[in-house]
Design goal:
It is built from 17 helices and six strands. It has 432 residues and is an alpha/beta fold.
Length: 432
């Protein structure tokens, strides 16, 4: 497949400067007024975000919830409990403020952009000026400043197809369509302000496309990848598995993440994949929602692995996995990646709903890192060697830490895949 979309360079977070920053952040976390590690995964989350954003006191700026929508020709095979027309109807519902993603975006001050990547009908775009908003740094939203609060959802049209073709009869997308969708996602990300993007999607039939990609990229049996989607009963699930088995057989000779994406995927998955690689290149935090957005990240990581031995691991360093979907294949995929989601609520809605629900945890992680007092500054007696007020280690030590002798402990605290785990990431995302 000709590479029409030029993959941006994703720099691994490693080396002396990264190690020194990690050590400074870990030292601060260890000296806050609490037992060491008492905030559990919020501490590892704060450390991950700080190293991605390159600051020991990072602040969230203009968080973006991007929901990519498209239709799937494969849905004509009767793989969903809902008709294809629901995709366009749900886009309208999101823009009107009635969808779960709309409600959660309003609640949490997230700027919501709904992207028409390939809905099988024409939708009217919003004015281009509505895509961007002012960038005002506020630590952890701690004082109630919403980044995008009050802004209406925006429709962004990046349509490369009027729905994909039926992948049981041929490729879902042409090479040109697939490459255009990847480029559209990267271009959209470049227009959006902020340092964090939450991923969402909408598309009747897209759990089928994600399951097909999972089967090929993760090398798992199809039965381990296929779930009930919008709520299929046993007979409908068996039909779905049979159809997808025929799709895999038809495209068995296809190799490589871009070719697999074109043959099996959806326009919204391709657009999200392009957005993810651009976000990773810009060192933005990427909050991954559920099964379909994980498929987009998997494609992005596989492309990055082709470009560089450390590409997949470098991309995953930027990713926070919001939740484990009730779609059966998702938990298996997360386990294969060696990542632990923040939430497990039995969600299977999509739309970025799980990412939006996890967002307050990311806000809290940075608010605690920035706002908590140290034992020294608060005059609180800590364990031996902590209280700076009595000539022992305190805030000054935290600011001056450049010694990275215990960086191995710091790095192992990350839930994200470290750049050194190249082989693991390559195995998780290698096309089979």
């Amino acid at each position: 497949m000709t590479d029409g979309f030029l993959l941006p360079r994703i720099v691994p977070l490693q080396g002396p400067a990264h190690a020194a920053l990690s050590a400074r952040v870990q030292r601060r976390l260890d000296h806050l007024t609490k037992p060491r590690g008492a905030l559990g995964r919020l501490e590892t989350l704060a450390l991950q975000v700080a190293t991605v954003l390159g600051s020991d006191r990072p602040q969230w700026r203009v968080p973006q919830l991007v929901v990519c929508a498209a239709d799937h020709g494969l849905a004509a095979q009767g793989l969903s409990a809902y008709p294809q027309a629901v995709t366009a109807q749900m886009v309208a519902n999101m823009l009107a403020g009635g969808a779960a993603a709309s409600v959660l975006a309003r609640q949490h001050g997230l700027a919501l952009t709904v992207v028409d990547c390939g809905v099988a009908s024409q939708l009217e775009p919003a004015p281009a000026a509505a895509v961007a908003s002012a960038s005002v740094p506020v630590p952890g939203l701690a004082h109630g400043h919403g980044h995008g609060h009050g802004r209406e959802p925006t429709l962004y049209v990046a349509k490369t197809v009027l729905g994909t073709a039926d992948s049981s009869a041929g490729p879902a997308m042409s090479e040109v369509q697939c490459e255009s969708a990847l480029a559209a996602g990267a271009a959209l990300l470049q227009q959006l302000p902020g340092n964090v993007v939450l991923l969402g999607e909408m598309g009747i039939g897209n759990t089928s496309a994600a399951a097909l990609l999972m089967c090929r990229l993760a090398g798992l049996p199809l039965a381990d990848c296929v779930g009930r989607g919008t709520g299929l009963d046993d007979a409908a699930l068996a039909h779905k598995q049979a159809v997808l088995a025929r799709v895999l057989q038809r495209h068995a000779a296809v190799q490589g993440p871009r070719a697999l994406l074109a043959a099996l995927g959806g326009a919204e998955i391709a657009t999200l994949a392009g957005l993810v690689v651009q976000a990773a290149a810009e060192r933005r935090v990427v909050v991954v929602d559920g099964f379909i957005t994980t498929a987009a990240v998997a494609v992005a990581a596989a492309m990055a692995a082709e470009a560089s031995p450390q590409g997949a691991a470098a991309l995953l360093q930027r990713c926070v996995f919001a939740h484990a979907s009730a779609e059966s294949g998702h938990a298996r995929w997360l386990a294969l990646l060696g990542v632990q989601p923040l939430l497990d609520l039995g969600l299977r809605l999509g739309e970025g709903s799980g990412a939006a629900l996890a967002w307050p945890l990311l806000v809290s992680a940075l608010a605690l890192l920035d706002g908590m007092a140290s034992f020294d500054s608060a005059g609180v007696s800590g364990p031996s060697g902590v209280t700076g007020a009595h000539g022992q280690r305190g805030d000054q030590d935290i600011r001056e830490v450049n010694d990275v002798k215990d960086v191995s402990r710091v790095d192992s605290a990350h839930d994200a895949v470290d750049a050194s785990d190249v082989n693991h990431a390559s195995e998780a995302f290698g096309a089979r």
